[in-house]
Each structure stands twice: as structure tokens, then as C-alpha cells.
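Data availability (excerpt). The following record was deposited with the supplementary files.
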Amino acid sequence: MKVNNIRNSYLKFDTAYPLHTWYPLFSNDIVKNDYHFVYKNIDKEKITDRALYFHIPFCEDRFCAFCSFNRQIKKSDDEIQNYVNSLIKEIHIKSRFKSISEVPVKAIFFGGGTPSVMTADQIIAIGQAIHNCFDLSKLKEFSFENNICSITEEKLKVLKKIGVTHVRAGVQTLNQKYREFFNLRPTNEEIKEKILLMKQYFENVCIDIIYGINGQDIDEFIYDIDGACKLNTKLIDFYPLTQPKGNMQLHKLFTEKKLAPHTELTLIGYKNLLREITKQYGYAPHNGHGFVNINCLPPSINKNKTAVSYVFEYHKCLMGYSSGDVVGFGAGAISGYFNYSIQNESNIIEYEKSLRNGSLPGTVYYADQATNHARGIISHLPYFGYAEKKYIEMDKVPAETLVSLQNLIDVGLIFETEDEYQMSSEAWLWDNIIMYYLSPHSAREELDNSFLNTLSDKYYKIMELEQL
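Predicted structure:
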């Protein structure tokens, strides 16, 4: 992959990468499964941004066709209760380690599946365990994902009670054709009704929208942008669709309807259009795919610096500097530390069985320390639009990453000040490609092996732009 040296060219790279959102990877090198060793050797003094992630792998009555996360359909109330009991037990076991309980938590995120599948009492029980077991004195953000169908006033009140600050809902699309493709049940009227209800209790309401869907034309895309912005939530996340091989339901549907994926260059064009239209509604980007309504920000904020006036704290821990980490809870959840990563057992029955026996189910992996040292440049810079030099140990950043960084500075995609590196406005359109470009070769190979080799269609490949 090479950067284009022509400053006034729209094509900033000679290739386009077919992955749009990914998190820092762990290696395939398995450590002896001794989580005691990991938690006893975490240097808690070096952690400045700690997040907790809780995975609720249940859905109400159907799977969203675009989702390939670890989840299953809810069969009974007892099934959910058994899982909640196990989750609370995992909380208590992990909190016995000082490296987990004594590091102040900056962000909490409940994902799934559908966390709102739980009852109000179950939400309270987990919330109480979190408050009892962790240091929340520096908590800035507590996010909770919801399915439109399972949002109730009772649950919103309970979320407020346990300290939730951000409620999220997966709208995905307002176009009925694509809602049927994705197997989404709520109507547009129900979406509007529930969003209004959420806004009665929370300032920070976020909706997710998917774009670049196979077959989606410009008119349909504009319709979704327009409809999403008119819901007037403070936050909107717009995600380009990536169709991995594991998502066979959606792949089969697109194949039957002969709907080919968009090219990477088309998706970059869609992103450009997205930013122009959202700007007219008062939204501005705060990270690679998130937009904030600048009318909701304090008047003292300089609107030209929206990227730093609002921060999604959870991703600050996950995608930020090397001093951030995430502790995962639940079946299939991943914990990412500087030296190690741990993936919990994905099978729900096995996960619960291990916890009943008093042990933490999962596999421990080595983390790539060189890549972690460079996270401020590799992920924070392209994802948030800036990186503060004081948080990066430049002498430990791989030389190849520094060479790539200088190349981007030379062509004007990155600006360097005394204190920061900053993305140019043109660079925002290429954020996923810049993240790949800045990664050392070992991380690129890990991405290629983990993702590109699993993509199921000839269209999902690295696109040679210089051949167009």
C-alpha cells in the first residue's frame, strides 16, 4: 500500500482496504490459561483509561441479519436469569484482583445480543454488583444498547438509577426494503415513539445506521441520512456494511437477489456525501463513524474542533493510547490489556458451567507490545482525528509506523504541531485505510489473515485504485 504523493488528488492511496471498523487484534500465540498470572501482572499504575464491557448474548425473537456477534434467541426467563447469575459471579471473581478492582473505571458498555432483553430487576442486580465491586469515582460514561422493541419506561428509569449516561438503539435503516433484508421488526413509527421516550430520560441518545448496503443507491442513502438526522438524537453512528463469511443469512439473500457489494471507492464517496449532508443538520464527526449534534455541545466549544469537544469514552479506552484497556465480562467477551488478551468461553452453557465451579472460562493470548506502544498513532490518530504526543512513547513505536506517519505528513494528510498530530479534513474519508497504513507489517498480516481470508465474495478484496 502506497500513499499518493499528488496533494490535490482525490485518491489518497493506491489501494482501498475492504474493512471499515475493527478493534486492536490479539495474536494467535496462546499462553498457558492462567488468568491469575495475567491479573497479578497487570501494572495498574500505567492504566489511565479503563473500561468494562458486558456482553448479553440474547435476542428477543429473531436475529438481525447483519449481525455476526455471539448471540442466541431467548428461550425462557430462567435462561436469562441463569446467565445474569453467572455474569455477577464473574464480576465478583475478577474484582478480587487489585489490578481490576482498584483501577478507576472511565467507561462501561453493555452490548450484545440485546441487553434490553433483561428485566428491570436483572438490570438492577448487575448494576449493584458493578457499583459494589469497582472504583467508579472517575466514571465518565455508562452506555447501554437497546432493542427498540424491548425499550420500556420502567427499564429506562432503572437504567437511570444504576448510573447509565448513554442509551443506544440500533435503528440501522428507515427504508422498509432494507429493514426486511435485515430482519428488523419495529416500524418507523415505533422507532420515533421509542426515541422520544429515550430522550425524556437521557440527554445522550445514540442511534446506529448502516450504509453501503448491497443495492443501496444514492437516493436511498440520502433518505436514511435525512430520516436519521430528523430523529434529532444527540449522537448518530453511521457504519459502512462489511459482509463477512460468517454472516451466511445476509450473504445468501444478497446472492439470491443479485445485489453486489459496493466498491471501496463508492463507499468513500458515500462517506463524503454523508459528512456533507449531516453538516447541514448540525452534526459533525467526533470519530471515524460517530457524529454529534453540535447544538447539544456547550457554547464555549469551538465548533471547528468538534472532534475533541465530544469523546466516546469507551472507544477511548479500546482505540486510544497504550495506557487504556478493557475488561470483558460474559460469554465470548474479550479483555484487552497491554501484554495479554483474554477471550471468554463463547458457548453459554460452558461459560456458566465454569463459573459455577468458581473458575473463569477463557483463553489467554499474548498481545503485540510493539503495536500497543504505537496505538496512539495507529488507532487514536485516525479514529479520533488527533493524537497528543505526551501520551506516546515515541522511542518505542515501531520504525515502520514512524516512516508511514512521516509519509502522511509529507503529503498533507496529517499535520504536526508542537503538541499533537492532527488529521486533515480529507484524511477523515480514509480513516480505516490510514489505520491500516500506519500499522506495522505484523499487525497488517494479522488483519489479512483474520479477515480478508474469511470474506466470502470476490468483491471483498483490496482494491487497486491506481488501476482505475
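Summary of structural features: The radius of gyration is 22 Å.
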